[in-house]
Amino acid sequence: MYGQEKHLYEFGPFRIDSVERLLFRGQDVIPLTPKAVDTLLALVSNRGRVLEKDELIKLIWPDSFVEEGGLARNISVLRRVFEDGASEVHYIETIPKRGYRFVASVREAGPTAAQAAAPLAPVPEPVEPDDKPARRTLWIIAGIIALAIALGWFSFAWQPSPRRINSLVVLPLRNPSNDPAQEYFTEGMTEELINTLAKIEALRVISRTSAMTYKTGNKPLPQIAKELNVDAVVEGSVLQSGGRVRITVALFEAKTEKQLWAQSYDQALRDVLTLQAEVASAIANEIQVKLTPSEKQQLATVRTVDPDAYLAYSYGRYYWNKRSPEFIQKGIEYFHRAITKDPSYAPPYAGLADAYAQLGSIGIDAAPPGEVMPKAKTAALEAVKRDETLAEGHTSLAYVRLSYDWDFSAAEREFKRAIQLNPGYATAHHWYAHYFLARGQPEQALAEMKRAQALDPRSLIINMGVGWGFYQARRYDEAIQQYRSVVDMDPSFYLTHCTLGMAYEGKQQYPDAIAEYKRALELPGSRSFALAGLGRAYELSGKHSEARQTLQELEKTAKRQYVPAVYLAAIYASMKDIDQSIAWTRKAYDERSDYLVYLPTEPWADTLRSDPRFQKLLQLIGPAR
User: Fold this and answer.
1) Is the same domain home to 267 and 182?
2) 340 vs 343, 378, 380, 388, 434, CA distance in Å?
3) Is the dihedral of CA 527, 532, 535, 536 positive or negative?
4) What's the structural domain count of the chain?
5) H, E, C per residue of 49-94
C-alpha cells in the first residue's frame, strides 16, 4: 500500500522504511502485522494532522469494508509498542469522536538505493562516565531495566504459534528501488526462494505461479491463506545494488496476521545462492520443520555464481514464464547469455530445455518438434551433467524422454529422481501425471495432477491439467466443471476454451463445443488447435459443409506454416475417413508429436482403434498397455 515510493522515517528511538515495511528500535525488529504497519505509515506520513477514522480506514483497507474495531486494535498494538499511556502520550494522540494524530517529531531520511543496500550502521556504544562506582550502579540499573523490558517484550511479541506450520506461501518480494529493470531480479529471487523451500519434504510451499497472482492487490493475509490453504505467509523485499544483495523477510502466521519472525540479510551478488539457502534455513528453523539429513546437506552445499550469469538467468525465467512464443524466444536469448557468462551454472540449461520443449508442444505450435526438441534434450542433459541434484534439470529431461523419445522407462526414472530432489516442485508432479496418461492410467494421472494442484492452486496450466485428466478418464461432467473454474480464473486463456470444447464433444453437447472453439479463435493463441476442434465439432453435429471448409482452411495453413499433423488426423477421424486419418497420424508419428502419447485414452481416436495400422502405431510409440 505504501510501498511504491521509498521513505525512511525516524522518530524517537524508532525508524520505519515504507518499502521494507519493518519497524526498528535501534537494531531490533519490532513485530507488527501488515495492517498495523499500514496504520503507522498513514499516521507518520500525515504527522501533525488529525486523520479522521473514516479516512484512516479507507487508507488502510481501500478495497474492503472494515468496522472501526479493526482500526482500534491496530492503534492499541502501536500504543503498546510506543508505551503511550492514557495520561502520557508521546506518539499517537486520540482526538475524541474524530480520529488520531501522530504528535512525535519525525525526521525523513530518504536514503538512496545504494545506501539502502548497505548494512545498517551499528548503534554507537554509550560514552562511559569517569566515576566508576556511579558507572557500576548505572550498569546494574540498566541491566535490570533491560531484562525487564526483554522479558515483557518477549511475552508480548514472541508467543508460540497456536498451530503447527505445515504449509506457506512466499508472496512476491517487493522491489524497493522503483527501478523497473530490477523487477526481473526481484521475481527471480522470489522464484528461487520458493524453489529452495520447496525442497523440504515436510513443508508444502505454494509454487511461483500461484504466488505471483498476489503481486498486485491488497488482500488481507487471512484471505490469501484461505484461498491457498496455507498456515503461514512470507513477505519481504529485495534490493540489488553495487554488486550486493539485501533481502528483508518476515514470517506471519496467516490466520492471525501475527508476525512470527523478521530478519535482513546482506551478501555479495556472487553469493546469492548462499543467501537464498540462509533465508530458507532460517524460515525452516523458525517454524520448527524437521529437515532430513539430505535436505540439510542441500541447504548447506551451495556454490558461488557469476553475478551476470545469475541476472541473465533471472531475466530468462521472467520471459519464459510469460509463455508466449515471442517471450519464450527472448528467454532463450537470456539463457544463452547466462551460459556464456558461466558455463558451469546448471539452471540456465534447464531453462533452455523448458523453452525449446514448450515451442514444440501441442497448443503452442510454434515449431515442429524435430526442430526444437533435440535442442531441449541436449540442454536438459547438460543441466543434469553440471548439477545432478537440480530437480528442474531432471524434470526437463523427463519431459523430453516422455514426449519426444517415447522412452517411458527413462522418463519414469527421471521424474522420480526430480520429485525425490524437490518434492515441492509442482511442474515435476504435473508432467509426471502426463506420463501416467501415456501409460493409459488416467486415475493415477489424476492423483498426480492433484498433488501439483495443491502446490500451485492458481496455476492455469495445472488446473487445466486436472481437467485434462478427467477428460482422458471419460469423466466429462467433472472435466467440464473443472474447465469452467479455470475460465472463471482467466477468461482470456484460449487453451482452456479449446479443452472445454473437447469435454463438451465427449458429452455430445456440440453447440456448446462449437461456441467454446469460436471463443478460442477470438483470443491470442494457436489458431490451428482451435480450428481442429471446431472442424470435429461441426462434423459430429451434422454440419458437414462447415467441417469441410474448416479442414480446407487448416490444410491451406499447413502449406504456409507449421500445423501439427495430428490436428488433421482428428478431423478426418470425426468424418470416419479412416485411411486419411491413419495417414495423417503416421505423419504426426514422423513429426514425433507429443500429442501421440495420449492416443491410448484419447476419445476422438476411438474410431481408429480396430484398425491394425493404428494398433501398430501405438506399439511404436510406447510399451504395451
Assistant:
1) yes
2) 6, 16, 16, 20, 33
3) negative
4) 2
5) CCEEHHHHHHHHCCCCCCCHHHHHHHHHHHHHHHCCCCCCCCCEEE
pLDDT of 112 strictly over 80: no
* Residue 263 pLDDT grade (very low, low, confident, very high; cuts 50, 70, 90): confident
Closest CA to 20 of 237, 342, 211: 237
The CA–CA distances, whole Å, from 180 to 17, 174, 175 equal: 20, 12, 9
Burial class (CB in 10 A: 0-12, 13-18, 19+), 562: middle
CATH for 34: 1.10.10.10
pLDDT tens readout for residues 45-90:
888 888 898 888 888 877 655 567 678 878 888 888 888 766 678 8
* Domain stop point among 304, 339, 373: 304
Same domain, 187 and 280: yes
pLDDT digits (tens, 9 = 90+) for 314-344: 889 888 888 789 999 999 999 999 999 999 9
Domain of 271 in residue numbering reads as: 167-304
List the beta bridge partners of residue 241.
244
Is the model's pLDDT at 179 over the cut of 90? Answer: no
**Domain check: are 92 and 182 in the same one?**
no
**121-150 as b/e: b if 16+ CB within 10 A:** eeeeeeeeeeeeeeeeeeeeeeeeeeeeee
How far apart (Å, rounded) are the C-alpha atoms in residues 390 and 527? 36
Q: Which amino acid is at 482?
A: Q
Residues 6+ apart with CB under 8 A from 570: 532, 536, 581, 604, 605
- Mean model confidence pLDDT for the chain: 85
Measured distance between the N- and C-terminal CA atoms of the chain, rounded to whole angstroms:
56
Q: Do both 190 and 289 map to the same domain?
A: yes
Domain end position, chosen among 247, 274, 304: 304
